[in-house]
Amino acid sequence: MEDTNSSFIAPILPRIAAAICVVLLIGSIGLASIGAVALFGPMLTHGENTEHAAGLIVAIGPGEDFTLKTATGRSMSFECAAQCRASLGHMQRHLREHAHTDVYYIQGPGNTLMVVDVD
Prior knowledge:
Elements: H1 4-9, H2 13-46, E1 51-60, E2 66-70, E3 75-85, H3 88-97, E4 100-107, E5 113-118
């Protein structure tokens, strides 16, 4: 007499293994895609010569110029020029709430830091 339990499971095991492999493949492709966008996204959006700084806005003014304090304690003063995509209201909220701020900038004339985007 044949064992009905083993005759039922034997044909299903390859399908279960294939389903697990597909889920792992899709997950790894998804994680690799997210990592690539996080790494190369800002460069594609803002250009190749932009640099990134992160920290807290500690002062704003005059106008949309501001000072950022990084996690290492370094203070960086930024100028918001014509190409700046920063909202004064957004930066004031970051100052009020002590929110983490990402700044994308380029080196301007006289080693000034010209803001491209603030988030």
